[in-house]
Design brief:
The structure is a homodimer. Chain A is an alpha/beta fold. The first copy, chain A, is built from 15 helices and 13 strands. Chain A has 3 domains: 127 residues, Gyrase A, domain 2 (2-Layer Sandwich), CATH 3.30.1360.120; 123 residues, tRNA modification GTPase MnmE domain 2 (Four Helix Bundle (Hemerythrin (Met), subunit A), Up-down Bundle); 161 residues, Rossmann fold (3-Layer(aba) Sandwich), CATH 3.40.50. Chain A is 47% helix and 17% strand. A 7-stranded mixed sheet of chain A has the order 3-4-5-6-2-1-7. Chain A has a 6-stranded mixed sheet with strand order 9-10-8-11-12-13, sandwiched between helices. Chain A starts with 10 loop residues before the first strand and ends in a 7-residue tail after the last helix. About 3% of the residues of chain A have low confidence.
Chain lengths: 459, 459
Amino acid sequence: MLLYKQKNDTIVALSTPIGVSAIAVIRLSGDNCIEIAEQFWQGKKLSTQVGNIALFGKIINNKKEIIDEVVLTLFKAPKSFTKQNSVEISCHGSAYIVQEIIQLCLLNGARLAEAGEFTQRAYLNGQFDLAQAEAIADLIHSDSKSSHQLAIAQMRGGFSQKIKDLRESLIRLAALLELELDFSEEDVEFANREQLYSQIIDLQVIIKNMIDSFVLGNVMKNGFSVAIIGKPNAGKSTLLNALLEEDRAIVSSIAGTTRDTIEEIKNINGIKCRFIDTAGLRETNDTIEKIGIERTLKKTKEAQFIFYIFDTQITSITELKQEEETIKNYQIPYLLVGNKIDLIDKKQLEFFEKIDNFIGISAHNLLKIKELETFLSNYIQSISSNASQIIISNVRHLYCLQNALDALKIVQNAVEIRLATEMIASDLRQAIYHLGSITGDITNEDLLDFIFSKFCIGK
Amino acid sequence: MLLYKQKNDTIVALSTPIGVSAIAVIRLSGDNCIEIAEQFWQGKKLSTQVGNIALFGKIINNKKEIIDEVVLTLFKAPKSFTKQNSVEISCHGSAYIVQEIIQLCLLNGARLAEAGEFTQRAYLNGQFDLAQAEAIADLIHSDSKSSHQLAIAQMRGGFSQKIKDLRESLIRLAALLELELDFSEEDVEFANREQLYSQIIDLQVIIKNMIDSFVLGNVMKNGFSVAIIGKPNAGKSTLLNALLEEDRAIVSSIAGTTRDTIEEIKNINGIKCRFIDTAGLRETNDTIEKIGIERTLKKTKEAQFIFYIFDTQITSITELKQEEETIKNYQIPYLLVGNKIDLIDKKQLEFFEKIDNFIGISAHNLLKIKELETFLSNYIQSISSNASQIIISNVRHLYCLQNALDALKIVQNAVEIRLATEMIASDLRQAIYHLGSITGDITNEDLLDFIFSKFCIGK
């Protein structure tokens, strides 16, 4: 049920990045786009062509001056991205030419497309649902294997199907309750309360698993942050360098990090890991250093994992246990990373190895660094152990699912205390509404504008 | 006559700028490009399709994972830009996806294209000649109406045709001379020396006009620079602001200008005019100011025109005449711009107006600024009065034309002093060679590499 009015006027935008290049692509979509293009096109007549055809020709302005020689690709409704007539003009990648061609489109009746407007039309014309449309934006912004896989899976519609199945189960339950309301005089129960109760519980488990998958989905989409903390000279910076050593090429500094904490990104098994090198933690009266340590504490609190690095040469097991208590205060998963193990004897190392959460390394000699990565990779995988096969990564979807879950809890409670059918049905409709708004089966203009405004122009 | 070996292996490159965007286009060209694309393409079978067709489908990697949903456009030899089989993959504009698809192309037998390699193949396969190929690079870099028009005209082949006509005239003359050599025993003159002489003179005039057009061509392509000089407080900066006033939006500062001279660009009648605001000229003992004035002198010497601005309130005709003598030393065309004419009486103004090269303005009150622009625009047009209809803008072409002209002068001289037919024919062949190297009828590998290396990757 679409509340949003479909638009058929012709929109135009540059769909490739701005810059001097071999090719730039200008995209038009709308009922009249072929007639509009015909006004400045010199080549085979467009209106008599079949769709999906690429034609060579010229773009000429009102003064019959040649603007460019281009390839124009014609897509005829409904066989196009937007399911409207569409034209793609592949011209030479000069800012001047692009500007002239867009001007010609505007002069002949097109208007500039807003961000995401092509995808919005595709959605409104039933090319895909809302969750799939959102996946396209994620796909364009994907910058690692994991974020790409998530987006592709969501775009392919697996998630949408799961949500639609859930919603249909609820609609079926609601229908039975509605039936009871129709026959309310006769006091019959079409929906067996025991069965209803167990179904509501089952559906909550499924939704709960989806919600739980957000932690993993978020990591896959936005990366995983690891704070490296420890006393001064424990080897924090050396560890950071050791972690980045093997693959310097794909390392990049994040702009805007505070001067006293350094962030570097490393791709581990397709997941962006953000390592934060922090100031050394110690008691100090130095004002500047105190600020540094405060920032370290702040950064650490925002991290998703802590590497606590210590010098195995000078740290006793008792001291380590004390320090571990402090780390626990962060309430963030952590690993105790014993550095400089090449400088202590085997016996000493064995003592450390009895501790849970311990890995011994030599940051300086690149000893056991791979183990550290494998540990991290396994940890990230383990986040998903409770998650459903469907992984969600979109905050809007999380919010809708939580609302649906809350509504179902109320339904559960209503059934438990045997509330009137009317009340149960009403809460059930709430849950149905929230699930429907994920895929856009229920939606409103504001929501659509919000979603599509985050797209690139030209998409 | 191509000396360069044609290549048929498959090359691949991103043809759109790098950046997050709706669309990125990856281009493949080569005998096997369709077979290569078939390896990672899921959609209609490519090898059985006709050319110029746009197909929707999926890109899948070796693990059968979906990389993207794309539109693939097929061009079949010889109906493609390179005249080879070509494939254009229009994918989502994510750096990750682009990288994955290019990797798949490389894995399946393509190699990365070098800069300009697609255009080089188009040239080698006779799609266009060398001058036309060079025009494509100019077209991509065009950033004003005039530079765009030049590039389009050259790409359309008018210039090439003119050069070919010239070259054919020379070849015809040379053929007659060669005939004489074949019959040298018999001492006949197939080429009437009078006629030969006058034809050589005519051809020199045509080439000379083309060479002269370079001044205009260079202005059209690279812009026209005007130095604004004058005494302190004459109103130089006010004039610059007045010139830019009307169209602030398309004004941009040029990076890297020295701190003491300011350059601003204004598009006047489609030509990029670069106005240089300079330090005030006066006798000074201040070291810093001296440096500023030296820079002003240097910048002024590099300019193509001078606006000498002076305050009409405080400058007598005699003083102005003296100052004009100094300006003449630059040997650059100039205009005397009298400022603050709203503050002097009519009589005084009439005296100034009797001077050639004078325009009176009020920079502060935007009086007669349009006249100044019209003057400049007319001046630029006038550069072309002696030029041929063909305007050249490429330094390589200028160099070839000058060489051809030099060779023709030697021919002329040889005819004058009635040198042996053999000598005349040899010099004529030199001229033919130089003209031929403009369009690529005569060429070598080094030259081609040099020309195409200046192209974008993917073109």
